[in-house]
Amino acid sequence: MKLTDNVTLLVTVLMVVAAGIGVGFMITGSLGQSHSASSSSVYDLNLVITTDNYYNNSTGTQPAYFVLGPSGLTSSANITIPAFTLIDLTIFNYDNGNGNFSPQYANVTGTVGGTETYFNNTMMNATDPFNTININGSVTAKSVPIPLVAHTFTILSSTGSVLVNIPVPVSSVVHASFYINQTGTFNWQCEVDCGSGPTGWGGAMSTPGWMMGSFKVIL
Ligand SMILES: [Cu+2]
């Protein structure tokens, strides 16, 4: 082996070692990153809206929000979340009807990016490609067209200002994330007149666990 070959070999070995260390750093770095990402907490809040729940004999049926947890559907009368934590909210809405509301509630308020993402049934088909479930994307938006809004999930401060507002389109799955960077007991309310009585604000709209309730933010 000539001297130049030895130098070439040495350089090659050094490059391979350096590359190996580099890859090692990349792997360590990415593991470190994913580790820190997984240790920063995210709180899952899953809500389900169903219709035709039996309210009482005179009112008949009403829509309601439920919390979907590890043991199934539970009451939405008292929802508790951690403060200063990313809340990962998904709302599964089985209601295909819309309603009347103050137009400001068509806007998304207080979420990460100021947006929500929703899927509805017009995006799902089995035609192209044929005979499979095609999920054709989703809509990410800062507001929902007024005729499409079935309910809202609105968190109100103690003075009545809007902390978070999520308009929920008819027959949809909605995803949004938000932080509440304070503690306290707030109220949540649907702002669409989906209840009973002449104004539509009776029944579900004024009964905890149906279309309103308390929203507690704790450390
Ligand atoms: Cu409602």
Please explain how this structure is put together.
This protein has two domains: 1-40; 41-218, Immunoglobulin-like. The strands form three sheets. The protein has a seven-stranded mixed beta sheet, with no helix packed on it. A five-stranded mixed beta sheet has the order 4-14-13-10-11, with no helix packed on it. It is of the alpha+beta class. Helices cover 17% and strands 44% of the residues. It contains one helix and 14 strands. The protein binds copper (II) ion. Copper (II) ion binds next to loops.
Task: Give the topology, please.
Blueprint: H1 3-39, E1 42-56, E2 60-69, E3 72-75, E4 78-82, E5 86-93, E6 116-120, E7 124-127, E8 130-135, E9 139-141, E10 149-156, E11 162-169, E12 172-178, E13 184-189, E14 212-218
Parallel strand pairs: 1-5, 4-14
Antiparallel strand pairs: 1-2, 2-3, 5-12, 6-9, 6-12, 7-8, 10-11, 10-13, 13-14
Bound molecules: copper (II) ion.
